[in-house]
C-alpha cells in the first residue's frame, strides 16, 4: 500500500539510524531522509491499558440483543397504544435498577418510538450504549457509531424515570444540534428540552435548567454553577448551596440559574473530563489596563540570559530562575524602586514575561485576530475568544506582539472541572477514546469504562508511515504522497496540530498545484461545510485537530469503490487519544478508509518530551511512543496536582465560612 517497500529497515538503515540516535544531531538539508517505516496502529496501541470491563460489555450486549428483539415484536403497536404502554412502563421502572426487566421493557418501547419520531431504530450497539449510560458508566463508542442518538434515548429514559438530565457537550454547536435532534422524541412524551449556549441571556437560563432535559456546553454550565456559588457566598459547603439552588423562589435562591446538579451525560467525555481539566475555571473581572507594569516586567526578563539566569522546561511548560537570575533581578530592582523591590512580585513578573517569550508561540498557542490576542484550544484547534490568561500573562503576550494592552483579570472565583463534575448526583459519559485514561476516570469521577463494539466491523487499513530527518523533507514527502492519492481520486484529510503547521503544508500543496481546503483556528468560519465535503471525490482538506468537531464526513459513491478517505497525520499528538480521534475520521460505519503518519525528528513531541538518554538507544516508532507516554504522565500529574490544590482550597474556605 505504501510505495511497495519492505516494512522492516535494512541493516544499513539500522546502522545509520543508531549512529544518528547516539549523536542526537540530525543532519540538515540531507538529500536522502532517514526513512524509518512504522505502523501507526502500533504506535497508538503501545502502552494502552486493558479495560477491566469485558464481562460488563458482554452482559450489556446480551441485554441489548434481547431488547432489540423485544422492540421488533412491539413495532406493530399504534401510536396511542405505544404512548400508553410507555406511561405504564415508566411507573414500574426504577433508576436505581437501570438493568431490571421493567427498565429494559421501557427501553424497548422507546426504541420503537425513536424510529417513528427520529427515523432511526437504534442498533444493538446503541442500545448497549444506552444501558451503559443509564447505569452510570462511561461508554467507549467508536467515531461514527451514533453517539448522538445513544445519548438522546438515554436522556429520555432517565427523564421518564423521574430524574432531570444535563446532556453536556464540548461546544455550543453540538449542544444546539443535539437538542434539536432530540426535540421530536421529547415532545411526543411531553418532556421539555432546555438549551444553554453563550447567546442565551442570564434571565432565560433558569427556565432552561428546570426542563426535564437540558443541553449545554461544559464551559457554559460550569461557569453558571460558579456564578451561582459566588451569589450564594456565606454558606458552608455544597449541601446548603444545593438546597438554595433547588429553592429558587426563596430570597436566597432568587436570581440564580441552576437548581442543583442532577444526572449528567457527558459527550466527548475524555475531552471534557480530562483535557479541559488541566486549567481551572476562573471567573474574573477586567481591571484598568496597566501597560507600565507589563513594560517593566518585560524589561526585567530581557536582562536575563537563558542557561545562566533561568532554565526553560518546555515539557513541563515552566520557567525556573537560577540564583544568578535572582541576583540580577535584585540589582535591577534597586534602581526601579516601588513594587519591584518586593522579591516575590519582581520574580513572578519576570517569570511571566519569560513564559510569554519562550513558552507561548504565535499560531500554536494563540493567534492575532482583529488586533487582539486570541487563545487556541490545543485539543480542538478552535479559537477561544472569551478566554484570557490570568495574572498578567495575557498582557505580556500582547506586549510581545505589539498590540493594544488590555486590562488584567481580577479573579472573582475559581474551581476545577473535576470538582464541578464530581458534585453531580450521578454521572455518565461517552466518547470514542477513553481506554488510555480509564484509571484516571475511575479514580477521579468513579466512572468505569465499558467498550461498546461498533455496529459494523471496521475496514480501516493502517499504512506504514515514515519518520523523516527534518520538517522540510517531511512536507515534501507529504505533498508527494497527497499528489499520488489525488491522482487516483481519493479524498485526503491532512491532520496538523498547529496553525503554523497547517499553513506550512498548505503552502507546499499550493506549490505542487494541488487544490485544497484549509481549516484551522484562523479560518474556521465555514467549518461544518468544509468538513462535510472532505469525503468527496478528489477532495484535499488540511485541518487542525478534529476533536469534537461533531460533523459527519459523508463519502461519495465513487470514493467507496476507490478505497475510501485517507487520513494523513503530519504530527503525533501529546495524547494518543487525540491521534485516535483523528484516525476515526476515516472508515466510519463500515466504510473503507486508510491512514498513515509522516513525522520528523523536529516535531514538537520529540523536542519537548523526548529525552536524549532514551532516544539514543530507542529506534523508530518506539521513540515517539515513549515521548507520548512521558507527555501523558506529565499531564496526568498536572491534573492531579490541580485537583488536590482545589480540594485544599475548598477545605480552607469552608472552614473559614466561605464558598469558593
Give a topology summary.
Layout: H1 11-23, E1 36-39, H2 40-45, H3 54-74, H4 79-92, H5 101-118, H6 124-134, E2 138-141, H7 147-160, E3 165-169, H8 172-188, E4 193-196, H9 202-209, E5 213-217, H10 218-231, H11 237-246, E6 263-267, H12 269-273, E7 281-289, H13 291-302, E8 310-313, E9 318-321, H14 323-336, H15 343-358, E10 366-369, E11 372-376, E12 383-384, H16 393-400, E13 407-415, H17 417-422, E14 426-431, H18 438-445, E15 449-452, E16 459-462, E17 464-468, H19 471-488, E18 492-495, H20 499-511, E19 517-519, H21 527-532, E20 540-543, H22 557-562, E21 565-569, H23 576-583, E22 592-600, H24 604-609, H25 612-615, H26 621-655
Parallel strand pairs: 2-14, 2-15, 3-5, 3-6, 4-5, 6-14, 16-22, 17-22, 18-20, 18-21, 19-20, 21-22
Antiparallel strand pairs: 1-17, 7-13, 8-9, 10-11, 11-12
Structural commentary:
- With 660 residues, the protein is of the alpha/beta class.
- It has 3 domains: 11-32 and 456-630, P-loop containing nucleotide triphosphate hydrolases (Rossmann fold, 3-Layer(aba) Sandwich); 54-278 and 417-452, 3-Layer(aba) Sandwich (Rossmann fold), CATH 3.40.50.300; 281-413, SecA, preprotein cross-linking domain (Pre-protein croslinking domain of SecA), CATH 3.90.1440.
- The protein is built from 26 helices and 22 strands.
- The strands form 5 sheets. Strands 1, 16, 17, 18, 19, 20, 21 and 22 form an 8-stranded mixed beta sheet that branches. A 7-stranded parallel beta sheet has the order 4-5-3-6-14-2-15.
- Strand 8 (310-313) and strand 9 (318-321) form a beta hairpin.
- The longest helix is centred in the last third of the chain and has 35 residues, at 621-655.
- Residues 1-11, 13-34, 248-252 and 655-660 have low confidence and may be disordered.
